[in-house]
Design brief:
Number of helices: 10
Shape: globular
Distance between the termini: 11 Å
Mean pLDDT: 95
Structural class: alpha/beta
Order of helices and strands: EHHHHHEHEHHEHEEH
Number of strands: 6
């Protein structure tokens, strides 16, 4: 089996892997619920959101993510038996992405990993939302490239996103797919389509995560598996020191 240190690029999903999108969504929903109690568990809310998000991303592949969230928000409110939100409230929900917090290990782990790899983002967000995330939640982290759904015109798990990635790295750096490691939490958005594209992947599990876990037939796909990005950084440094098994 190849070593982690044999790759040249880590291609990251952002929201769910580097950023706590579940906590961010729940906080944004609470702030835009107009003081209403939400009579559903967190897991129920997140599963309903995830189902709606997938539906809307399929229906509106060219709509930037913040605007897509604003479309999802009224439908989610209806499913949760909340009053219909105003357009302004839904826009606030859509613009909340930059406030979603990073996982505690993310920034330090990225700074450690960038000593060994190029860092690339392949995200379902839009350029402005990611720029806010990078500035506010990932200070001091410089990515070598950022590829968003807005740039590509489709949302993962669409195969076009991974084709775009592979074409970009070949044109930009002359790097082949064998030198790229897709690094992500979501089985649905990343690991299944990455395998279909011929990419190997590292699964950052983020224990307790609700969204993104359902792969085809309930199977899990990964070449390396870590609970956190910090654990992956530990493994890379062990390899670099020549202490890998």
């Amino acid at each position: 089996m190849a070593k982690l240190t044999s790759f040249k690029i880590l291609s990251f999903d952002t929201y769910g892997t580097l950023i706590d999108w579940e906590g961010g969504i729940l906080t944004a929903l609470s702030k835009t619920s107009q003081g209403q109690d939400i009579p559903f568990s967190k897991s129920d809310i997140l599963r309903r959101f995830h189902t709606l998000e997938k539906e809307y991303q399929s229906r509106y592949p060219n709509v930037p993510y913040s605007q897509l969230l604003a479309k999802v928000h009224p439908a989610l409110s209806s499913e949760l038996n909340l009053r219909a939100p105003t357009e302004d409230t839904s826009r606030q929900f859509g613009k909340s992405v930059g406030s979603w917090p990073a996982f505690p290990d993310t920034v330090e782990a990225l700074k450690r990993l960038q000593k060994h790899f190029k860092l690339l983002v392949l995200s379902n967000t839009d350029r402005a939302s990611f720029a806010a995330t990078n500035s506010i939640q990932l200070p001091g982290v410089e990515f070598d490239a950022v590829l968003t759904a807005q740039d590509i015109g489709s949302y993962k798990p669409d195969k076009r996103n991974f084709e775009y990635l592979l074409d970009f790295i070949h044109q930009q750096w002359g790097i082949s797919k064998d030198e790229v490691l897709q690094t992500a939490q979501s089985q649905f958005h990343d690991h299944y389509p990455a395998k279909d594209a011929g990419l190997r992947s590292a699964w950052i599990v983020r224990p307790g995560a609700i969204m993104g876990e359902q792969g085809k037939k309930g199977e899990e796909i990964w070449d390396w598996k870590f609970d956190t990005l910090g654990e992956m950084a530990d493994a890379v440094e062990e390899e670099a020191r020549g202490n890998s098994p």
